[in-house]
Input
Amino acid sequence: QLKNTFAPSVPFVASDVTNGLYDTRAGRAVFYVRGEVANRSDAPATLVVKAEIIENGKVVRAAESFVTDQPPSVEELYAVDGTDALEALQRRVEKRAAAVPPGGTASFVVAFTEYPPDLKGFRVRVSARPVTTPTATR
Output
């Protein structure tokens, strides 16, 4: 109980988070946020990471991507020449997503084709959540 007071228990924790700009073949860089997510829950979970670009406490851009053992490669990021290409890449990443076992970790890369021109005064907030699948009803 005392541990949860000072270090609250969170089931999915992002770590080793970095960000930057990556040049693409279109000549315009994508802004990326990458890292790992640990599953601290008691069950396997397919996870989605949300990255938010924040200015003065307000979210100015947000994007999501699945957590996977095969995040987008540098070649895949280089091929992103716009929003449509990024959406196609995200669909491929979703197909590679697999449940992260309890105590396990997997990687993520969240990419933005649209982002503020000057990223110096911005913060990035990252959160992870499990993907919920709707249950069938009769």
